[in-house]
Amino acid sequence: MVTARRTSPRASTVRRRATSLPSILLLASLTLAALPAQGQGLRYAEDQAPGIVNPVFTTTMPEARLNELVFEGLYTDNQNLASVPCLAESSELSADRTALTVKLRSDVTWHDGTPFTSADVVYTIEAMKNKGTLSTEKGRVAWIQKAEALDDHTVLLQFERAEARPEDKLLFKVLPAHKFSGPAIKRTDPFRNEPVGTGPYRFARYNDDNSISLESHADHRDAVSIHEIVMREVSDKNYQAKLLLYESLEALVRVLPRDLAVLQNNRKVDLYPYQTNSWWYLGFNLERDPWREPAVREAIGHLVDVEALLAPIGTGDTLTGPYVKSSPYYNHDVPSWDYSTSRAASLLESAGYAQDGGQWSRDGEPLTLNITAHQTLESSQEVVINLQSQLQSAGFDVQVEFLDEAAWKARIWREHDYDLVLSQWTFDRNEDIRDQFHSEGARNFCSYGNEQVDELLNKARDTTDPHEKKAALREVHRLVHADTPMIFLWTLDSYAALSTRVGSVVIHPFYFFTFVHDWRME
Amino acid sequence: MADPQLRHDDTPSSDLARAGSWKLVFPVLRLVAVFMLTLAGAVLAIQLLLWASPGDPVDLVPNGEEIRAQLEAEWGLDRSLPERYVQFLGRALRGDLGSSLTYRPGATVTELILPAAGRSLRLLIPALLLSMGLGLGLGLLTAGRSSVVRRLAQVVSVAPVFLLAFVAVHLLNELAFYGMEAGWFGRPGWFALPDTDSAMKSSLAILVLAVGSGALAEVHAAVEDEVVRLRNATFVDAAVARGAPVWKHVLWNLLPPLATIAYGRAAFFVGGLVIVEKVLHLNGAGSMLWQACRLRDYPVALGITVLAAAAVCGARLLGDLVRISVDPRLREVAQ
Questions:
Q1: Which residues of B touch A190 (CB under 8 A)?
Q2: Do B144 and A5 lie within an 8 Å CB cutoff?
Q3: Hey, which of A145, A181, A477, B264 has its CA 20 to 30 A from B149?
Q4: pLDDT digits over B156-213, tens only?
Q5: Per-residue H/E/C for chain B
């Protein structure tokens, strides 16, 4: 029998000699493990490294944060979030508020040593407005009718209409004209891999592990004390806090709520709370039945226990409209939907639904609902599963699905193939919700339309009176809440976590690194 | 019972091995034809998968909808699937795999995937060798007797590579962390996995690939069977009678089955590489394929697929050559 099992002296010899081979291979591979420690500098984690580095094509927060280190705008924020000159030295607004003469700093050089001039500002504005530049940032210059270089360090900006505080809108990053060959900027331009800015850090390299290394810009007017910053790609958010504890990172932009307690109790980590202009929402597809019926949307508003959805994922403020509570545009007079199954039932009955065996149906068709969420939206799984449970117990047939970025864009934005989406919007301090709620808004995938809201949004855009703008946007808040194209959920409390080796830390709520020149590192 | 002398040629992929050394032309041509057909099939399969998945690269371009028609024409997405397929094959035959659309816009696929493939090969080849070596060693150790080692190896090996990698990373990190906190040792150069690139991380990837998803168990079982068979073989007894070293005969005769297993496992190793590189944050062709699929970067995904299919087919060819060079009986059978 070939399967007989016995041992013999010759077999033992064979075993001894042959087993030495894998042992040698294993030992050899493991003894290679000792490597020198990593270089000094600040390492921070992002979920995904940008494929290109060009502020004209910014679509994600990791890109916006990286841009803040490498590029600069004419104006920037101070620690009170008020506009202060950056590449600009001073400016003068015309009497009719339709033109601004900007005097530029003369002590600025690009990272490649070329002097910064007004030609760069004019080129950036013209290129961003150019139809051939498929920029996501067009809106940031759409209000500028014309840019003209008066001399090497003076630019005249003429606006489409009178502007109240144009400096607040001059935050877009300026690009080096000498690095581009045509009037339009393309994603495939070589600039994508060799970006040149005027910021405190210059792009050093893309590393093999998808991380991006930045080095301090020696000629920058504000010397930084941290000489190297590395953006590490750590796609698993659950692992980012571990890496901070292990001292493999020095900064986490946002801590997951479940990691807060662990980091708070660690003597090597400091937590920094900050307020973002982000809010979560459940968006209806207003092109599809029965979600185009206000009574059905409002009924769901009464069936969603927002506090119960928020509790497992962190702390924050529940909202009734499209602004965070600290915003001047938030309308505090708008009441939240009370959680009421009886109110929801009467609304559904008024829409022709009847409950049979606990399940809502109309004309024999059960009331079904498909909840769609983005895969990468933090904590979305907990929220969606709990929401599914809430609505199922209220008599809905609920399905859930999670989509990646491409599927999300195709299904939600392009094909409008959804019932209810769970998502989040994040804004800079201008809090411009026009794209989301104007009937012609580029990001209005819910297909919401209300003439009164359109007029108010136009008014808020065009007025130079801040009080008028505030009143118009507060009214928008009220109207949008009443129309319920979305159920507004919450804004989450945000915490950054940094190693105690990093000191003098002040965090910008949107761009994060705006005040990095003040940061110190042991 | 089959004649043990003829056991090596009963695998379905031994066309080359069945041929004599001077009669290799036809089998080689046939192998090349199979190689090309496999590549074409792999390209078709990945094109179908990408086509069927929701969303396309234009969806991932900011403001892409505004210029969808322009981009679709530029990227060839306005053509039918068969047209795209033929166009890709035609270009690939000329060595042009196109340019990246969304992963690294504008970069040529060749300049992206060749360095990544090099990094992946530095994991794959040692993993394959280590798998064979470990399986051989354990097989020789446990052949013909009941052994705890065998059961342990099988239990560990049956775990999928992602689980092994995850558990290994977690354990190593926690051990190192507590060791450092307790002051037992300083910070190791590899700490913390998988964020820090180090030889330790590469070694771990190699080990996981070599052991996980049944790789070690398969080699181990095959070696055990073969060793038991060889112990009863008359030519081994003859060698013993002559006073010749037995281990040389055994190892030499183990090479053909090991080669068969090695090229049979090549496809699994390439598949496992995608997972291992993802879990361990290794920037090779596997993680690039993952990213390319996620970003619907069709040219990059297709380029890596072609490369992977070529690697698997190449492994098969190499395996056949090893077998035929080691075992003269295979040539005699063919002649």
A1: 106
A2: yes
A3: B264
A4: 888 899 999 999 999 999 999 899 989 998 888 888 888 777 889 999 999 999 998 8
A5: CCCHHHHHHCCCCCHHHHCCHHHCHHHHHHHHHHHHHHHHHHHHHHHHHHHHCCCCHHHHCCCHHHHHHHHHHHHCCCCCHHHHHHHHHHHHHCCCCCECCCCCCCCEHHHHHHHHHHHHHHHHHHHHHHHHHHHHHHHHHHCCCCCHHHHHHHHHHHCCHHHHHHHHHHHHHHHHHHHHHCCCCCCCCCCCCCCCCCHHHHHHHHHHHHHCCCHHHHHHHHHHHHHHHHHCCHHHHHHHHHCCCHHHHHHHHHHHHHHHHHHHHHHHHHHHHHHHHHHCCCCCHHHHHHHHHHCCCHHHHHHHHHHHHHHHHHHHHHHHHHHHHHCHHHHHHHC
